[in-house]
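This part of the workshop introduces the protein records we will be handling. A record pairs a protein's sequence with a compact description of its fold. As an example, a complete record with its sequence and its structure tokens follows.

_____
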Amino acid sequence: MLPKHSSGDGREDPYADFWAPDPTDGTWRDHLADLVESLTPRAGRPSRLPRAAAALSLVLAATSLSVPAAPAAAAAPAAPVAPTESLDSLLERADALSEEYNGELRDMEAVIAEAEQAQERADATRKEVDEAREQVRYLAVATYTSSGLDPALSLLLSAEPQEIIDTATVVDHLTHTNSDKISYLVEAMERDEKAQANAEEKLEAVEADLDELEARRWEVRRLIADYPVQQMGPPDNLTPRTRQMRDLIIEKFGRNDENGGVGCYRPNGGWVVGEHPKGRACDFMVNPNGQMPTPEQQAHGQAIADWAVEHAEDLGIMYVIWRQEIWDIRRNNGWRPMADRGSITENHYDHVHISMF
């Protein structure tokens, strides 16, 4: 594992392994020059630190730093880009589509989990930037306004600083005093830029996934019409369709009781509430101890999964989960990866899960 990145003030950067920017050769004065624009008023937004920004420009000039001048003519604004839908809005769409499509969209778990993780990182890096920026703003106010000049800066701006101390010494003092805060802010902004871009990318993936499913609305409606809702009943609290599927698989592959057997109805759905409480799902175990199955056990599970996919349309099978992958007839585009739930059983390595319409 890569070493954790130090922020320079004793804090450890938890995102270093993933977001660490390339090393920069600039000094704190170079970075401060880049920050002038962020502290300067922008069109339509009043500056919170007008005096600080002006004084900051003066100081940069006094220390032989050039602040990039504004271009003579502003470039034409780019065409507005439609913002990506928020994660909350996408989750609401997924819930609504699950209800409309007569069952959970379990094949979307992976893309949704990635989007949620990316959003958490983006929120954390944005908070980090806000905190670091506030420190630099405070530094700018305390150092560059007339009411709170840093003693060393007072020397630098005095009429005859050479009579008190050599200017180079003052600059060196400022470098050692302020470089950590400014460098930390610059790096935090770089991390945040990457985190925000990654979150946007993951949200776009969820949105594209939902768009694809919604485009298949009529195909899914035809499937649902072919498999009207059935009520579960005795003696096993299953729907007739689920009972038929279970019995056919047992007839072909056996109950496999020595490896856990077959389980269908239960009053709760387990890790995610699904079709089990509705009498519309069965688990076909291949290992009884929550361990990774042997090659022989795995081959048995694979045979069941393949058979279920082959006969899905005939039997009204909605989706099959096996070895942390899902096949869903409503999407009908092959096996897709699922999110890591943390254990062999929760990731369906020791059993085949089959849900029905």
In short: The first strand starts at residue 5 and ends at 6. The chain has a mean pLDDT of 74. Residues 5-215 form one domain.
